[in-house]
Predict the structure.
Amino acid sequence: MARVTHTAQKKATASPLDGVVLTETAADVTNKEQVKWTGREIIVAHNTGASARTVTITSTADSLGRTGDITADSIAAGAIAFYGPFNGEGWKQADGYIYFEANNAEVKFGIIGW
């Protein structure tokens, strides 16, 4: 199945975070997630559950062949974690997206862009 595509929520202000109302979507554990890369995405992961959950963001090889996945990053119950922004080299997949996922649907994702 296809990954769930998220859209970055934006606000036309001087600061990327001024007045952004974040809509969260439950992680799709089976199909996983993606967002179109522009270099201005912040992935917000909110663990709404009662126990720790994990988030993974899949890297790509850089010009030296190195990868640096963020693998099973633990988020405590009720906590919110922020990831990014991401450089194209090392993060943008061949199809132009950033790939990410959570191990449970209790993790809600929102994307902030500017």
